[in-house]
UniProtKB/TrEMBL annotation:
Pfam families: F-box-like. This is F-box domain-containing protein. The lineage of its organism: Eukaryota, Fungi, Dikarya, Basidiomycota, Agaricomycotina. SUPFAM superfamilies: F-box domain, RNI-like. Residues 63-110 form the F-box domain. It comes from the Eukaryota. SMART domains: FBOX. InterPro entries: F-box-like_dom_sf, F-box_dom, LRR_dom_sf. It comes from Exidia glandulosa HHB12029.
Length: 543
């Protein structure tokens, strides 16, 4: 913004220039200055002032720290940005634009949300294609119902543009909840030789759409994952699903026995199956039906009868059975009675929500059952009433917050045969939740059978051992006062003991870190469950 004094100086300067440079020929026969002279003079003044402003900006920007960054460093920093932020960074200045546009690998993961009517959808997608030099690896598009009517002409143009990169795509995520029109079928009929995962969301209709036959023209040899929301697999998919190992049906109104048979039939290598439906058909399948051998079976609310019960019973070895939000009445039977002998119980909750928790038990033959997203009160009631089952469990994994709650409820006292206890800590404080070693522990933890205690960072234990995760800092004095006297070994996973002296002055047992021992064994679902294929709005470019 210009000050009043600056505007007056500009007025005086322009007036002086006009008086000095206005020739007699610029006046007409009546002595008035011609319009053409004024326009020409204004153009010259505008060009001169623009050159001066650009020269000033170039000189100032050349001294700016952001422009002094070498292109290699800019590209490295930009590689950590989501697509929406990356697009904004390329608009900061010409230096950034040149540096970021020079590396096509930065632009191989595109996420665009068409949120506004009349938005520049076609140009945004074309720019993404140009930046990736048609070697795009991941494409995520969001097409909501709010812009369905406005986008109808684009139902031909946009899918055709996407087909130009189907040869290089590894991950394709289309949220077509606004309108799953026939124009988009051109994408699903184009060969996709490198496609690994396909996620599609259709409109929420009473009768879900079924994908067209001969998916990807029968050419998708690397396709392994198919996630469908409000959609069904094709009746005759061709060879595209021959290598698929994971199928998910999300939020379908009704899932029939015939549809379950169809999934198992068209995906011969199926090992991960997720079905969340409002209603399950419990009709028994034909006798010739052979349930596939699964590593993971995920259902919602209950374990239905019929073909679903057959799938559960046929996969009670080396498998994970997950049930989302089971009913209160079915919770105890699900967790405690479907496994002959429980070796480990894992009680956890998402740190973003204080009112929901999950329980996972692992038993013989590496069989795990997990009740996910239960109310916290249901989980506490389940454990309080399950003393007869808890008394023989040798291993427990629990967050520090839940440990305090369960100890107050008398649950931990029921674990009379517990040999191993893993306590998970988070770096962030979640007030008003109580946390261990902050004054809530109430003295020494009482358990005469406990031999091994692991104090672990939540991030380290649930996402694998990576030194890049922040360590949890714990007071050696507080830990020593809390540890049961029977403890013979203390393991630290992403945690360190703080003390002015030797930690062994406070802790009278062996101290080891996970880097020095075997670490956490096995795979499993371990807290990082994605029950829904949601669109990453925060990472996307909105147009």
């Amino acid at each position: 913004m210009l000050l009043d004094e600056d505007e007056r100086r500009i007025d005086e300067l322009v007036a002086t220039i006009v008086r000095k440079r206005s020739p007699v020929m610029a006046h007409n026969e009546r002595g008035l200055i011609a319009d053409s002279f004024v326009v020409d003079m204004l153009e010259h003044i505008h060009k001169a002032t623009r050159r001066a402003a650009e020269r000033f900006c170039q000189q100032r920007n050349a001294q700016s720290s952001i422009n002094l960054l070498p292109p290699e460093l800019l590209v490295l920093i930009a590689s950590f940005l989501p697509y929406g932020s990356l697009d904004a960074a390329a608009l900061v200045c010409r230096h950034w634009n040149r540096a970021l546009s020079s590396d096509s690998s930065l632009w191989d993961a595109v996420a665009i949300s068409f949120l506004r009517q009349g938005g520049p959808w076609q140009s945004a997608l074309q720019k993404a294609l140009d930046r990736s030099q048609s070697r795009m690896r991941k494409l995520t598009l969001h097409y909501p119902s709010e812009v369905c009517s406005a986008l109808e002409p684009e139902c031909v143009r946009l899918p055709t543009m996407v087909t130009s990169v189907m040869h290089s795509l590894v991950d394709l995520h289309l949220d077509l909840s606004g309108c799953f029109c026939s124009g988009w079928n051109v994408i699903l009929s184009t060969p996709a030789p490198n496609l690994h995962s396909l996620a599609l969301t259709g409109p929420n209709n009473p009768a879900p759409f079924r994908l067209q036959d001969n998916l990807f023209d029968g050419t998708a040899p690397r396709l392994r994952v198919v996630w469908l929301t409000y959609l069904f697999l094709p009746s005759d998919p061709g060879a595209a699903l021959n290598g698929v190992s994971e199928v998910a049906y999300f939020d379908v109104p009704v899932i029939s026995m015939e549809e379950m048979q169809h999934i198992c039939c068209v995906c011969p290598k199926l090992i991960y199956l997720t079905v969340t439906a409002q209603t399950y058909d419990v009709t028994l399948p034909p006798q010739e039906f052979t349930p596939p051998k699964l590593r993971s079976l995920c259902l919602a609310n209950i374990i239905p009868g019929g073909i679903f019960e057959q799938l559960v019973r046929a996969n009670s070895r080396c498998c994970e059975l997950r049930v989302l939000r089971p009913t209160s009445l079915s919770l105890a039977a699900l967790v405690f009675t479907r496994i002959r002998r429980i070796h480990e119980i894992h009680i956890y909750r998402e740190f973003s929500s204080r009112s929901w928790a999950s329980v996972m038990v692992t038993g013989d033959d590496n069989y795990s059952i997990c009740a996910e997203d239960c109310t916290l009160q249901d989980v506490i009631d389940l454990l309080v009433s399950g003393n007869e089952y808890l008394s023989s469990i040798p291993s427990v994994i629990v967050s520090d917050t839940l440990l305090i709650m369960l100890e107050a409820a008398g649950v931990m006292a029921a674990l009379t045969d517990m040999k191993s206890l893993t306590v998970l800590f988070d770096n962030e404080a979640h007030v008003p939740c109580p946390h261990l070693f902050t004054g809530f522990e109430g003295g020494r933890f009482s358990c005469g059978s406990l031999e091994t205690v692991r104090l672990a960072s939540y991030a380290q234990y649930t996402r694998g051992f990576k030194r890049s995760h922040d360590e949890i800092s714990l007071s050696a004095e507080c830990v020593g006062r809390w540890l049961p006297a029977s403890t013979s070994r203390l393991l630290l996973c992403g945690a360190r003991l703080n003390t002015d002296g030797d930690p062994r002055d406070w802790i009278n047992c062996e101290i080891a870190t996970e880097w020095d021992c075997e670490g956490r064994q096995g795979g499993g679902i371990w807290l990082e469950t994605a029950w829904r294929d949601s669109f990453p709005h925060r990472q996307a470019l909105c147009v």
